[in-house]
Amino acid sequence: MSTVLQNAVKTESGVEVNGISVQPIVEKCDGCDRVCEFEGQKYCGSYPVPARKWVSGKCNFATHIKVEAAAKAKVNPLKASKRAAKGR
Ligand code: SF4
After folding, report:
1. 3-class state of residue 23 by DSSP
2. In the chain, what is the straight-line distance between the N-terminal and C-terminal CA atoms, in Å?
3. Residue 56 Cα, ligand 1 centroid: separation in angstroms?
4. Does ligand 1 lie within 6 Å of residue 36's CB atom?
């Protein structure tokens, strides 16, 4: 979270990275490892417009979402073993 947004500059029209204007992260980005900071605002280190990554579902680069998926995966083998036990 303390990562600084690289190559970021403040312009009249907002913050830019390599000439591309970037927008602050959205609420759903909270906890993602790609969140960077610049001048007290949080930005995505991978996408200029984080809100757009969430328009059609989950952001495919979100690191905090993958963690949730891994936690769910842990539950599945348990269910599978219960199902196997019933079958016996
Ligand atoms: S990678 Fe996705 S979830 Fe993470 S900060 Fe960027 S837009 Fe947000």
Report:
1. coil
2. 49
3. 14
4. no
pLDDT in tens, the chain (88 residues): 469 999 999 999 999 999 999 999 999 999 999 999 999 999 999 999 999 999 999 999 999 985 555 566 666 676 777 777 877 6
Ligand 1 centroid–CA 45 distance in Å is 8
Query: 21: Cβ–Cβ under 8 A, 6 or more apart, which residues?
Result: 11, 13, 14, 15, 48
Pairing mode of beta strands 14-17, 20-21: antiparallel
CA distance 87 to 50: 47
